Amino acid sequence: MKVLSHSHMKMPRMLSHVVTYAPEEPEHDTAIEDINKEAFGPGRFTRAAYRIREGGPHDRSLSFVATSGGHVVGSVRLTPILIGQTKAMLLGPLAVRPAWKKQGIGAALMRTSMEAARRANHKLVILVGDEPYYAPFGFRRIEGHQIVMPAPVEPSRFLACELVPHALKEVQGRVRHASVA
């Protein structure tokens, strides 16, 4: 029987590393900013969700990183918001370094973050993103609601996940960071 060493295997080196998931810490900020820059470019600063996030901090206890070999390879953040007077959370950005995509890291970050939001008794999470990707996590289009983002959003990309039944019912108003009165 021939034993293959890692140098003889035909798989990318990164697959040999274990990916771990942990709550985000301040020392992760620079790496997360680099990942978001790489994933979304300079246009991220003009997007509706970014405008909300610049109103105040995200919730580090509900925001997570994926690391391998001590390096951040992905992250997801949840930010407290108000929709009118209704408390909710804004998910995003969710980003994974290009070399680490298609390995389930984004999905694992989503599951971890959404479960943390449920455990913290949040009722509603919104985001701007692709419904086919986010639907398996419980997100659906926000249709027929009077919810106003701070900048235009493609209606097909404006999604919500009700963590408790009917959490979206009768929610209306302007979306803003929870710290903005």
TrEMBL record:
<protein>
    <submittedName>
        <fullName>N-acetyltransferase YhbS</fullName>
    </submittedName>
</protein>
<dbReference type="InterPro" id="IPR000182">
    <property type="entry name" value="GNAT_dom"/>
</dbReference>
<keyword id="KW-0808">Transferase</keyword>
<dbReference type="Pfam" id="PF13508">
    <property type="entry name" value="Acetyltransf_7"/>
</dbReference>
<dbReference type="InterPro" id="IPR050832">
    <property type="entry name" value="Bact_Acetyltransf"/>
</dbReference>
<feature type="domain" description="N-acetyltransferase">
    <location>
        <begin position="19"/>
        <end position="154"/>
    </location>
</feature>
<dbReference type="InterPro" id="IPR016181">
    <property type="entry name" value="Acyl_CoA_acyltransferase"/>
</dbReference>
<keyword id="KW-0012">Acyltransferase</keyword>
